[in-house]
Design brief:
The chain is mainly alpha-helical. It is about 70% helix and about 5% strand. The chain contains 14 helices and three strands. It has helices at about 1-15, 20-40, 45-70, 90-105, 115-130, 135-150, 155-175, 180, 195-205, 215-225, 235-240, 250-285, 290-315, 330-355; strands at about 70-75, 75-80, 85. The two termini are about 25 Å apart.
């Protein structure tokens, strides 16, 4: 985590050169995340389990309130004024896997079909409310965290494999039919116009090189131009000539790859890989079902963050608002990450205390 934070601060200093306080603010966000990490790490897992129902209930209630009374910006209603302006969907990134882990712990040893149905409903309620806002990036993170809990709880491969197969078939069909379905005047069911445009731009960024395709094209140029060793710290031309949009948030990976090249990117990937494997080890050694499910879901959520962010910047996934953990700028995201790591440390600490 320290290595990832160092990568983040170095890149933020360079990428945020024209934002007077961006570097200082990111350092402050990291200190807040660190403080929360230390506090949460002292809370035993059984105390965390007691918070599952209240946090989930409050989170869903706030999402409903956002849908009814929320603040709209740029066509999205994601914020709620409760004295201060908050984004309730951020709470559900942790509250949803926490609630599902609590549910499976409660049903341990008697997992009937009805129990699985309840678990799926507990997941779909917050995901549906966030999709409605709309906020595709956050809904993906909440959905993936919940699905990881279902997987670790023993979801049958007979259900997983057909869904994966259908997904692969759908992606291949989408790529093959792109010249037809991305023509002007063709409307897709279930997707809004901007979402359809986003997918079509992913399939062929050159169709709108100065509009929606600009982000993907410039990101790929920056990554490719970094070469083996990169252009050097503060030497990224795509970054410093402001060709990379959102270079301190969603597209910070492009700025990092341009200045530190393949060597730096491999170091970043190794740090994420170590973090994920260490988290999975903590999950495997956890003393209770609740702790195992929660640790596994949180760990693989970090994988989802990193994979989706790097994938969208590299042009293999649609552009959605998902930060790169510990590297992208963002106070709310840093708080969520700090609490997530604190939960992992709490679970690891509880096992050591039991052994001693």
């Amino acid at each position: 985590i320290g290595i990832l934070a160092a990568f983040g601060l170095v890149t933020m200093y360079s990428a945020g050169f024209d934002h007077a306080t961006r570097f200082v603010d990111e350092a402050r966000n990291m200190l807040i995340g660190l403080a929360l990490l230390v506090v949460v790490a002292q809370v035993p897992p059984h105390r965390l389990m007691a918070l599952a129902v209240p946090l989930y209930t409050v989170g869903v209630a706030l999402l409903v309130a956002t849908a009814l009374f929320g603040i709209s910006k740029k066509g999205a209603t994601r914020w709620l004024n409760v004295g201060i302006v908050i984004q309730p969907s951020e709470l559900l990134k942790l509250a949803t896997p926490l609630m599902l882990a609590w549910w499976f712990q409660k049903c341990e040893g008697r997992m009937s079909p009805a129990a699985w149905v309840v678990a799926v409903l507990l997941l779909l309620v917050p995901v549906g409310l966030v999709v409605k806002q709309p906020d595709l990036g956050t809904s993906i993170l909440i959905l993936s965290a919940g699905l990881y809990v279902l997987f670790f709880a023993g979801l049958s491969w007979k259900l997983i494999v057909p869904v994966l197969a259908l997904g692969v078939i759908g992606i291949v069909a989408l790529i093959v039919s792109e010249p037809t379905i991305c023509q002007p005047g063709v409307d897709w069911p279930l997707l809004k116009a901007y979402q359809q445009h986003r997918v079509c731009t992913l399939l062929d960024p050159g169709k709108d090189p100065l509009g929606k395709g600009f982000h993907i094209i410039q990101g790929m140029i920056a990554i490719g131009s970094g070469g083996l060793a990169g252009k050097g710290f503060m030497q990224g031309t795509q970054t410093h000539l402001e060709f990379i949009p959102e270079r301190t948030t969603d597209f910070i990976f492009a700025a990092f790859a341009e200045e530190f090249g393949l060597a730096g990117t491999l170091g970043l990937l190794l740090a994420f890989t170590f973090l994920i494997f260490r988290g999975l080890m903590i999950a495997a050694e956890a003393p209770t079902l609740f702790a195992r499910l929660l640790a596994g879901a949180i760990t693989l959520s970090f994988f989802t963050y990193a994979f989706v962010n790097m994938g969208m910047v590299s042009g293999i996934l649609p552009v959605v608002g998902v930060p790169l953990p510990f590297v992208s700028y963002g106070g709310t995201a840093m708080i969520t990450l700090g609490v997530g790591i604190g939960i992992l440390m709490s679970i690891a600490r509880s096992r050591r205390l039991m052994q001693s």
